[in-house]
Specification:
Elements lengths: L5 H5 L7 H32 L2 H16 L1 E9 L2 E8 L3 E2 L13 E2 L8 E5 L6 H12 L4 E5 L8 E2 L6 H14 L5 E6 L1 H12 L4 E7 L5 E2 H11 L4 H5 L4 H11 L8 H11 L3 H11 E2 L16 H13 L1
Parallel strand pairs: 5-6, 5-8, 8-9, 10-11
Antiparallel strand pairs: 1-2, 2-6, 2-7, 3-4
Helix pairs in contact: 5-6
Length: 319
């Protein structure tokens, strides 16, 4: 730091050489300040380039491993693979000494020591993002599996079938390949419709179903009435947002409580969570059926609480 006392300042008028020096010091200070400002700007730009939603995934992976589950990719059939978060004890580490070994963990197919629970996500996010706050608590008493439905997370298929029935079939095949014989399925929103299909088609496999924010089937009348009441022209406009404004509108509809997030976080969420847009739009089209094509199934599973009310409401709607 440079300091000037009063005497020195007053004597400047008799020492003209000091002005060029002061000018040089001033220019150096300005250049230093400009450099620091540019450095800060560059750092801010680097921070802005980091996608916050993508950046939290390694942390989420670590937390889920601590909770006892990790991701595993399984081939359902040629051209169709599903990513499923599975209990760590069901996986065997690769043998590094073996020539045939790979870096992939292998399913050991042990008999589950705890009841099996399958958590099926909705349309707005992949599996572990949807259920991250429930896994830790449930894993204490249950063997928890969190699948990514087709075209979410790492799951994909070359099949043209986009129906919830196909999703249910693929999920069942994947779970059976991992040695699961009976389970409880928990479905949210879109995942609820897949869970209903699993319970309907495979009653010997699905012991119980828990549904939140879903219906038995999306008929054209329900779809049109719902979209009109929410102010959207199509399901894709609601569930496949392209802008921050549309993303906020989806959050407002989906969340029970009013939540606020900065625009930056909405942009990052849009970039990470809404890939495979073409295929997901086809999934939405595959959801809608006509009223006459819907039959209320008789679930052999025990129906408690809201299930009875849900079924009775569905029967009134589909008549």
């Amino acid at each position: 730091m440079l300091t000037f006392n009063a005497n020195t300042t007053h004597s400047n008028q008799h020492q003209p050489w000091i002005f060029p020096c002061l000018k040089t010091l001033s220019c150096s200070a300005h250049q230093s300040h400009t450099h620091k400002r540019k450095t800060r700007t560059r750092k801010n730009r680097q921070v802005e380039m980091v996608n916050l939603v993508a950046a939290q995934k390694p942390l989420l992976l670590c937390l889920m491993k601590m909770a006892g589950i990790r991701p595993h990719t399984i081939e359902i059939e040629p051209g169709t693979v599903m990513n499923i978060w599975v209990p760590c004890e069901t996986l065997k580490k690769p043998n590094k000494k073996s020539e045939k070994s790979t870096t992939e963990y292998q399913i050991t197919k042990p008999k589950p020591t705890k009841p099996v629970v399958i958590l099926v996500h909705g349309f707005a996010a992949e599996g572990i993002v949807t259920w991250q706050f429930q896994v830790g608590s449930l894993a204490k008493k249950y063997s928890v599996y969190v699948p990514d439905l087709l075209f979410f997370g790492g799951s994909t298929t070359n099949s043209p079938d986009r129906s919830p029935t196909f999703q249910a079939e693929c999920l069942l095949k994947g779970l059976r390949k991992m040695g699961i014989e009976r389970c409880t399925v928990v479905g949210f929103s879109y995942g609820g419709m897949v869970a209903f299909k699993m319970a309907e088609m495979y009653p010997e496999f699905v012991e119980a179903v828990v549904i939140s924010g879903s219906i038995l089937a999306m008929t054209d009348s329900i779809s049109n009435e719902t979209l009109e009441s929410l102010g959207f022209s199509s399901s894709a406009q609601l569930l496949l947002p392209n802008t921050v404004k549309e993303c906020k509108a989806l959050l407002k509809v989906a969340a029970h409580k009013k939540l606020w997030f900065p625009n930056r976080l909405h942009r990052d969420f849009l970039e990470v969570m809404f890939n495979n847009r073409k295929e997901r739009a086809e999934l939405l089209e595959g959801l809608v059926v006509t009223n006459k094509d819907v039959a209320i199934p008789k679930f052999p599973q025990v129906l408690l609480g809201n299930f009875i009310e849900l079924i009775s409401q569905a029967q009134k709607v589909f008549k």
